[in-house]
């Protein structure tokens, strides 16, 4: 097929114009894409500084090194895997790693000191309470010296029946069978069996033991109280034994 020269000339002219247009468009597109694929911090130069110590920060050249995170109760942008930070909504307020964490560490230190102070105050208060309890217990014991052991057992009888446990009961039974300084024991083996076998309920067993010791007199009650204080010191202090 034969084309006249002027048609061929027009065709080649149009072809090169289109090719040039496509090349320019591609170049502009590549330039635009390159500009959009890097954070602003990639081209700030020496203007990229920490607002605290004014040191120059390293450029952030890729969005893979630019993340938004929630740290210490605030949203921040993290650059270059933690080299520096910027709180969301605070433009150009960059902080290096040291300046960013300094107030956080100071706050945590203040909280630790405050907690330590509260712990010390609580400890001092507890020590005062213990000392007051000790003094009250000493006063109770001074008062109890004028009260016979039988009267003290009688006064505490109701609470002992309600609050003494099985383990404590068996320990007392063993101790009351051990001979005292005069070689005599408070309970005979048959009396021990009477407490355990005649009654199946723990409260009834305690009632039987307390009444049995009470009926044996002041020396038996004194031995009973001495053994009970070894097992249930707190209960004895509360009941004035």
UniProtKB/TrEMBL annotation:
Keywords, sorted A to Z: Signal
Compositional bias (Basic and acidic residues): 110-144
Ranges where the record places region Disordered: 110-148
Ranges where the CARD domain occurs: 145-241
SUPFAM superfamilies assigned to the protein according to its UniProt record, in alphabetical order: DEATH domain
UniProt xrefs under InterPro entries: CARD, DEATH-like_dom_sf
Any Pfam family hit: CARD
Domain of life: Eukaryota
Signal peptide: 1-23
Protein name: CARD domain-containing protein
Organism lineage string: Eukaryota, Metazoa, Chordata, Craniata, Vertebrata
């Amino acid at each position: 097929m034969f084309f006249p020269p002027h048609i061929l000339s027009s065709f080649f002219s149009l072809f090169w114009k289109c090719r040039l247009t496509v090349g320019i468009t591609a170049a502009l597109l590549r330039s635009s894409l390159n500009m959009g694929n890097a954070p602003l911090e990639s081209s700030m130069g020496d203007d990229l500084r920490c607002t605290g110590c004014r040191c120059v920060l390293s450029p952030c050249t890729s969005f893979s090194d630019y993340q938004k995170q929630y740290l210490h109760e605030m949203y921040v942008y993290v650059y270059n895997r933690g080299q520096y930070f910027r709180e969301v909504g605070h433009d150009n307020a960059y902080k290096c790693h040291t300046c960013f964490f300094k107030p956080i560490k100071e706050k945590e230190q203040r909280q630790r000191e405050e907690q330590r102070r509260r712990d010390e105050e609580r400890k001092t208060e507890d020590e005062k309470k213990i000392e007051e309890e000790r003094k009250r217990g000493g006063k109770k014991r001074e008062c109890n010296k004028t009260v016979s052991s039988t009267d003290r057992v009688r006064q505490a009888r109701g609470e002992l029946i309600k609050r003494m446990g099985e383990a404590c009961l068996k320990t007392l039974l063993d101790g009351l069978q051990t001979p005292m300084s005069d070689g005599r024991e408070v309970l005979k083996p048959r009396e021990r069996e009477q407490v355990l076998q005649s009654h199946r309920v723990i409260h009834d067993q305690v009632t039987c033991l307390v009444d049995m010791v009470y009926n044996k007199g002041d020396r038996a009650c004194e031995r009973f109280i001495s053994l009970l204080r070894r097992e249930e010191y707190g209960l004895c202090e509360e009941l004035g034994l």
